[in-house]
């Protein structure tokens, strides 16, 4: 863990300024997608983005100066997030934006800066880290169940709907939608066996949602209790 001196940006006043700027920058990112914006509005959005980036840059440089060791901060989670929050702006000064349209999405990394100022998010991160092994095992089990569901529906429905359930890979979409209980309805079984199998998969899907929820909730409770001691 990086040792650092008290930073100006960690004080209550500057903290709220940064939080406000993060939310404002996300709002301007969304406003820029509105077609046919008037030139004055576009100019205002560009100018406000410039001001936000300057403040975020000052924050990054200040934290870098205060950090001990500095290289540790550069490669830390928050160091990388702070850099990603300002990097797109400076790259756009040197590269045609049209060639980096997808790169603009990095501006949304500013939302991750909020984790520095939220105790609840920090607790959630600790909880996820605590149960990471359980979540990995559950994820592997979920992938296996997803594959088995695809094989099962293929067995029941391929003969009746070969144009829909063509291969097991085509069935993966149905399995994912059913296990997550989304059920888009674009692909559905018509045979009795397929319908009964779908009901079984839905029941399993409800359990798949409940299990990680319970694991994370228990971990969150443990983290909160440890902080209150």
Low-confidence stretches are 1-5
Largest sheet: 2 strands, antiparallel
- Strand content bin: under 5%
Count of DSSP strands:
2
| Number of alpha- plus pi-helical segments | 8
Kindly provide the radius of gyration, computed on alpha-carbon positions and rounded to a whole number of angstroms: 24 Å
Mass-distribution shape: extended
CATH topology of the largest domain: Four Helix Bundle (Hemerythrin (Met), subunit A)
Gap between N and C termini, in Å? Answer: 22 Å
Within CATH, the superfamily of the largest domain carries the name Voltage-gated potassium channels. Chain C
Report the mean per-residue pLDDT as an integer: 86
Question: Which architecture of the largest domain does the CATH hierarchy give at level 2?
Answer: Up-down Bundle
Overall number of domains: 2
Top CATH class of the largest domain: Mainly Alpha
Helix content estimate: 55-70%
The H-and-E topology, N to C, reads as EHHEHHHHHH
Backbone structural class: mainly alpha
What's the assembly state of these chains?
A: single chain
The neighbouring-strand order within the major sheet is 1-2
InterPro entries: Ion_trans_dom, VG_K_chnl, Volt_channel_dom_sf
Membrane topology: Multi-pass membrane protein
Protein name: Voltage-gated potassium channel
GO cellular component, one term: voltage-gated potassium channel complex
